[in-house]
Each structure stands twice: as C-alpha cells, then as structure tokens.
Amino acid sequence: MDHINGPLSILFTGLVCAELIVRWFFDREGVDWKDSAANIVIGCTDKFLTLTIWLMLMYAGWSVCYALTPLRIEMSNWWAWPLAILLTDLSYYVYHRVSHHLRPLWSIHSVHHSSQDYNFTTAIRLSWFSNAYRWLFWVPLPLMGYSPEMTTIVFMLVRLYQAPVHSTWIPSPPVYSWVFVTPSFHRVHHGRNEKYLNKNFGGITVIWDKLFGTYQAEDEPVRYGIPNPVNTYNPFRIVLGDLWEWMKRKRASELQNRPAEQVAERLQSAENETLTIHEG
Ligand SMILES: [Zn+2]
Question: Which of 125, 130, 207 lies closest to 166, judged by CA?
Fold first, then answer.
C-alpha cells in the first residue's frame, strides 16, 4: 500500500505548505497560526498512528471479510471502479452521519470540527482514533468481492478528495456542485450556525445528502467551529478533551445507576426464591 499512501501524503503536504506560504505573504492576519500549528501536530501524529497501527488493522479486517465471501469483483470489469467510487462515497456518508449522532463517535470526530479557522490544515485535524473505527463502514466492499487493495484505494480516494474542499478561496462552480462536493458545500458542514448543524455529510458527491434530506446550501456567512468551543491550542487537549469528558460522564452515570440495578437484581432473585418455595 506504500505506493498509494506515499504519493497521497506528498500531495497533502504540498497543498498544506503551499497555502500556508501564500497566506503568510498575502493574508497573514486572516490565519489563526496557532490553530494551524495545532492542526499540523495533530495531523502528523494521526499519520504516524495510521501508518504504524490503523492501516494494518483495517487491511487485516478487510482481508478477513474478503476471505469469508465467495463473491469476487475483478478490477478489469469496466463497471467495477465507478461502482466502487459510488460505494465508497456512500460508506463515507454513513460513517460521517453516524459519527455526528453517536456521542462516543462524536467525541472523536468533533476534533475535526472544533477549529474556528478553516484552511487546508483543517483537513488533517483528525482525531488519532478516527481510523480505529472508520474502516468498519467500508466492510461491505470486501464482502461484495472487492479486494482489500481496491478497498484501500477507494477508501483513500475520499480523503484525497476532501483535502482541497477545506478552503475559503477555491471556487465552487455551480454546475459541478449539483453533483460533486465543493468547498462551499463543505464549509456549511463546518459551520456552527444553527441552520448548518448536521448538514452536508457527503465526501465526494452531494447525492446522498440530497437523497436523505441533509443538504444545505451556503446562503449565509459561515461561523466555523462547534457550539461548545474547546478554547485551546494544546493538541492533546483538543484530541483527548471531549473523549475524556464523555468517559467521565459515562462512568458517573454507571455509578449512579448501580444501586437501582442491584435493587432490581435482588427483587428478581427474591421473586425466584418465592416461586421455588411455592413450587416445592
Ligand atoms: Zn463532520
């Protein structure tokens, strides 16, 4: 997979560096540099963890699924790639929407949203745990007969497509935006304006948002970030803060519920004993 991952990483890095250099000279006041620095640290750490742990985990998982199914889709079929791109786009939509609505997954995905600035570095501001579960949403592809290699390529394709849409200056051509995700479409997704919350989950195309009613056009200026801002540039607090908060609250609610559960268990065992006595 290095032959896929290497060029993608170089392309990502080139895009990020080029934008930062241009904005340093022409729009220095328009960038939150501390935020961008935090994004780069978070992104590099995510890259390291992905290459050392998560990529192996996802490839092993997809290989097991591929071994379990009798189905096979050959790369040479003309329809195999368009279908794979459509499926990877749908997998991304489902992964993304679920990540916004399930509290533990949101505590991971919200890292990507907690920046109040918006540039290419936002694209790599990804929790170090995203790839630990993200690949599960692509399991249907190897189960349908796509090889782990093909699954990896289309999995990475969404991420590659997502990089340049984190932009305030790349145009969003009207006809193109009827079908494909544009910077304008994705800016809405990063907005904390009330009408923009939980909208525009699409990765490559906008068709799933339009089909499932989560599409929203950019019709007012975007205020970036999340309703409860993290107010920190510390990468560890950005990545682990909300996750730690969620775990603490879960633990507290478990402890709170424990006496009630114990009471219910005692009542149940007392009832069983009474029944045994009567039956006896
Ligand atoms: Zn999101």
Answer: 125
Average pLDDT score, the chain: 90
Phi, psi (rounded to 5 degrees) for 180 = -105, 150
CA of 178 to the centre of ligand 1 (A): 20
- Ligand 1: centre distance to CA 130 (Å): 11
Give distance in angstroms: CA of 161 to centre of ligand 1: 15
For Cα atoms 166, 89, 62, give the angle at the middle one, nearest 5 degrees: 115
In this predicted model, what pLDDT tens digit does every residue of 5-19 receive, in sequence order?
667 778 778 888 888
pTM above 0.70, yes or no: yes
Determine the distance separating the centroid of ligand 1 and the alpha carbon of 163, expressed in angstroms: 13
| 39-64: pLDDT as tens digits | 999 999 999 999 999 999 999 999 99
How many Cβ atoms from other residues are within 10 Å of residue 2's Cβ?
Answer: 9
Residue 40 and residue 208: Cα distance in Å, rounded? 30
Own/partner pairs for 244-252, CB < 8 Å, 24+ apart?
245/107, 246/103, 246/104, 246/107
Residue 47 φ/ψ, nearest 5 degrees: -60, -45
For 252, phi then psi, to 5°, come to -65, -40
d(Cα 183, Cα 170) in Å, to the nearest integer?
Answer: 7
Question: Is residue 255's pLDDT more than 50?
Answer: yes
Measured in Å, residue 44 CA sits from the centre of ligand 1 at 20
* Centroid of ligand 1 to alpha carbon of 198 (angstroms): 8
- Angle at the Cα of 100 (from 96 to 106), degrees rounded to 5? 110
137 alpha carbon – ligand 1 mean position (Å): 15
Residue 162 burial (CB < 10 Å; 0-12/13-18/19+)? middle
Contact predicate 135/148, CB 8 Å: no
